[in-house]
Design goal:
By secondary structure, the chain is α+β, with helices and mostly antiparallel strands. It has helices at 18-34, 51-58, 74-81, 99-102, 105-113, 122-129, 131-141, 155-161, 188-196, 238-242, 257-273, 308-315, 320-332; strands spanning 6-11, 38-43, 47-48, 91-94, 148-150, 166-170, 180-182, 202-206, 211-218, 221-222, 226-230, 247-250, 279-286, 292-298. It is built from 13 helices and 14 strands. It is globular, with a radius of gyration of 19 Å.
């Protein structure tokens, strides 16, 4: 990217993924400055950060457990989007994860500024955040996804329609926050109550035993397929994702070229079915028979030092700074039709 931009990186947020967002934002800010762009860090809970405030915030790491929820205050966000500095920028870069940053609410506010922003729009963001809607659209597009029910549901219904084990999770959360694997009827209702602490809707999904695969999309291109090899437990949970030693992330995945192409094809199908834009990352399980099952699509995948999207990009020779510049370029593309 030859032109140097004025970019505001939105980070922090009020979701349970706040720590992860700050870690992503710190990486993005440094990379864009390293490319010569003028960059502001903007914490959506605290406003436009001074150099000292930024350094203090970026010094924190991702905790072992997600932070407690804070409140979403639209009036505060409207104020920071209307701050004098906002009139100077060319682009909003969203380093937010979960909650209002990823579910379409922030995107709706940004639409009103008239300034381009990275990632998907209001509709795509809202649909992909809702796992029930996501799975309905995936099925329609021909992307296999495990069978599911929405709570309330009793153990007999689950046993009849899904079988054991099942995954119980909030319908509109990321980073496996509030997620449990339930192996027998006695644990179902307590798992639903736990998930209800994080959302007003809870999904009960057939658990697919198998290999964990992931595939990002950048623009119209599916990137290198990766595999997550867990070192403990059976799910890629919050601790395994963001703490060293939780899992080995292998890029490219040790699967056949035909299987890799199939994962990439399904990731592109999911990206398009959900009306996503710019970039995304879809996660899959491959069962013992080699069948692929799409679990979800992430509209603002992590950009931390341990995140999967940067690793996939690096596997095909895209450095982190070039990756974030390409994300910026995708956001600006509608302003410069070919």
């Amino acid at each position: 990217m030859d032109a140097k931009l004025k970019i505001a990186v939105l980070l922090g947020g009020s979701s349970s993924e706040r720590d992860v967002s700050i870690a992503s934002g710190a990486q993005v800010v440094r990379a864009l400055r390293g490319k010569g762009h003028q960059v502001w860090a903007v914490d959506t809970m605290a406003g436009w950060l001074s150099a000292a405030e930024e350094a203090h915030l970026f010094a924190k790491g991702v905790a072992i457990t997600p932070p407690d929820f804070a409140s979403f205050h639209a009036s505060r966000l409207i104020a920071l989007l209307n701050a004098p500095q906002a009139g100077e920028i060319d682009l909003w870069f969203l380093a937010l994860h979960g909650g209002a940053g990823e579910d379409g609410r922030m995107q709706g506010l940004l639409e009103m500024t008239g300034i381009p922003y990275t990632g998907s729009g209001v509709v795509g963001s809202a649909m992909a955040m809702d796992k029930d809607i996501t799975k309905r659209l995936l099925r329609t597009a021909g992307v296999p996804t495990p069978d599911w029910l929405m709570a309330p549901a009793d153990a007999r219904q689950v046993a009849r329609q899904l079988g054991w084990p099942v995954v119980v999770k909030p319908s509109k959360q990321g980073s496996t926050v509030g997620l449990s694997v339930v192996r027998e009827a006695d644990g179902l209702q307590s798992a639903i109550r736990q998930a209800m602490q994080f959302d007003d809707e809870v999904m009960i999904e057939r658990f697919v035993q198998g290999r964990e695969l992931t595939c990002p999309v950048l623009g119209n291109e599916a990137l290198t397929v990766g595999e997550i090899v867990l070192k403990r437990g059976e799910i890629f949970d919050y601790e395994a994702k963001y703490q060293p030693g939780g899992a080995d992330e292998v890029f490219p995945a040790a699967i056949s070229p035909e299987q890799s192409l199939q994962v990439q094809r399904l990731a592109l199908l999911a990206h398009r079915a959900l009306k996503l834009k710019g970039y995304s990352r879809s996660d899959f399980r491959m069962d013992a028979a080699g069948a692929l099952w799409c679990l979800e699509a992430n509209t603002l995948p992590g950009l931390t030092a341990m995140s999967l999207l940067p690793q996939a990009a690096a596997a095909q020779g895209i450095a982190f700074g070039d990756l974030v510049e390409r994300i910026c370029l995708e956001a600006l593309r509608p302003l410069h039709p070919r």
